[in-house]
Amino acid sequence: MSSIPGPGGAPQPNPYQQPSTQPPQAPVQQNPYAQQAPPPFPQQTPQGGPPAGPPGFGPQFPVPTPAPRKGIPGWAWGIGGVVLASAAWAGTLFATGTLWASGDFGGHAYEKDLCSVAQLSSFEGRYEKGTEKNDETKYSSKRPTVDQSYCSFDLKDKESTDEYSSTYITYNATWHKATDPSEEYADLAKSNEDYDYEGSKTVVTRLDGMGDEAWLTTETGDTDKELNRMEVNVREGWFTFRMSWSDYSASSSGDSKVPSAEDVEKWLVADAKATLKELR
């Protein structure tokens, strides 16, 4: 039925037209429980700029996303996981009287201010601490299942004339109170080799004489073979520790060269051992 013309020929609503019975459409809302795509592995900061935020804080290595299981509905795995978790909690509570089965930390006590015990003497011949407030960064966290403490120093190379160059020494200590990290620690350490970005090469090797196990990560440039990053990762019982050296200098300007990998490894291992001793 057509509209009735109004004054001036403008169409007016037809008073005899039946109103629509179709309910208005509700706006589409996003499902708040929808799974988001997992984030990629942490990106290595390329040479020439400082790390964004506390580098490496949290889990010391990223845990790979498990492959999806086929043939069994997701809800079934969810129920199974709840049952297994409940059984584990019940067993732990029955055996120990506490909810979590805390492991041995190798005598390393929790330290809120890791910078207060972090050792740096081996690097002092080549570097000096920055004097600005933000040249030292620290962070700590105590949770029912895990405690963490982090420290970072921004150092200046005494042999460099580049005012924008920086070298970072970082420390990460983690006290695992709910899960034993031993079974996956080696693979997580070796996974550093999977982080190669264009222009770099990363190699992970075993270190002897530190904790229950220790690993050395060495990252160099593909072309100049200069050292970009090195880190020592140590596990002792349910305690894990990392100390790393990262260089962000314009060494291509020719004013200086970064230290050799042999020197940095010697300094890093010595100060990592000294820091671990301070935590006992």
TrEMBL record:
SUPFAM superfamilies: beta-sandwich domain of Sec23/24. Residues 8-26, 37-67 have a biased composition (Pro residues). Residues 1-69 are annotated as: Disordered. Residues 27-36 have a biased composition (Low complexity). This is DUF3558 domain-containing protein.
